[in-house]
Specification:
By secondary structure, the protein is of the alpha/beta class. About 35% of the residues lie in helices and about 25% in strands. The two termini are about 25 Å apart.
């Protein structure tokens, strides 16, 4: 892969743009999340369509995509945070001007359904994207001190890297490559489309929530049979929460992960504290990461932002 462009670092007093590219947003939660950002010392510019409703979506596809394009083009906005996930980002991909974004990369933060946009930013705009908390969900509920300090350091520090620990080493080994991925169901939904991530030579991160074990197994089998696992150099699983939170389903999901990756030669780690139902530590997609299976570590050796 060619060198991806890093966005400019976020500074105190900078303006963060908040958009709603997916499901409809509740005003109360949006206002709570925005207030958190203001208390932390940032100006906030909320998109004018953020509280629109079009069925289950936050407005029409045209309006939601237009605001993605507009906020990337807006010189006042230094970073763009998603309000929430749910459903809807995939509908926007043909309407987003990724060529224009490539000329003006910015911090873009979100997860869950925003996985559609995150991986497209990496592959279509050759820019770093950030898998992490969303304004009307995580920020509104309250980030842990660890989650907030990790996010702020990642978006402001132009020098250092960081590392995360996995709870389980599914397969040992070491590997290095650019990080891609996100919500498992969304990654699978892109297969066979122009928006599928480029898996070759990369480390694949996967997480999800609210799924039965057999559905997780079906998606992992799909990825394996599509050749995605054979083309990656390593796989990292965040939280994959069962639909009912039961211990039995959680055990079965762990078994599904083991079965789906049993014949791979690359390292496989599980239990990174990122994604649904965790502290949701932010991961910079497109940045090179090193997996050390012997120690269960995921190591980022460079900063994700520039001066």
């Amino acid at each position: 892969m060619g060198q991806l462009r890093k966005p400019a670092a976020l500074r105190p007093g900078d303006t963060i743009g908040v958009i709603a590219p997916a499901a409809a947003v509740e005003r109360e939660y949006l206002e709570q999340g925005v207030e958190v950002l203001r208390v932390m010392g940032y100006r906030v510019k909320v998109s004018k369509h953020a509280l629109d409703r079009e069925g289950i979506l936050a407005g029409t596809d045209h309006d939601r995509a237009s605001e993605v394009n507009a906020f990337f083009a807006d010189d006042e906005v230094r970073a763009i945070f998603g309000a929430r996930g749910g459903y809807g980002c995939g509908r926007l991909l043909p309407l987003i001007d990724f060529a224009a974004i490539a000329r003006n990369p910015k911090i873009f933060l979100g997860f869950s359904d925003a996985t559609f946009i995150l991986n497209a930013l990496v592959d279509k705009s050759a820019s770093i994207a950030f898998h992490g908390p969303m304004v009307a969900i995580d920020f509104a509920r309250g980030l842990t001190e660890r989650s907030w300090s990790h996010l702020e350091r990642l978006l402001t520090d132009t020098v250092g890297g960081f590392e995360l620990e996995a709870r389980e080493v599914v397969r040992p080994g070491s590997a290095e490559g650019e990080l891609i991925g996100g919500c498992l169901s969304v990654v699978v939904a892109t297969l066979g489309t122009p928006w599928a991530p480029i898996f070759d030579g990369r480390v694949l991160f996967l997480e999800d929530t609210g799924e039965k074990a057999y559905r997780i197994d079906r998606m992992l089998v799909h990825l394996r049979q599509a050749g995605a696992f054979d083309r990656t150099v390593g796989i990292v699983f965040g939280a994959i929460r069962p639909f009912d939170g039961s211990e039995g389903e959680q055990v079965r999901i762990a078994e599904c992960i083991g079965e789906a990756t049993a014949r791979l030669k690359c390292p496989v780690l599980s239990g990174i504290d990122a994604g649904h139902g965790t502290e949701n530590l932010t991961l910079p997609l497109g940045i090179r990461v090193r997996l050390e299976g012997a120690h269960g570590r995921m190591i980022f050796t460079e900063a994700a932002v520039n001066d």
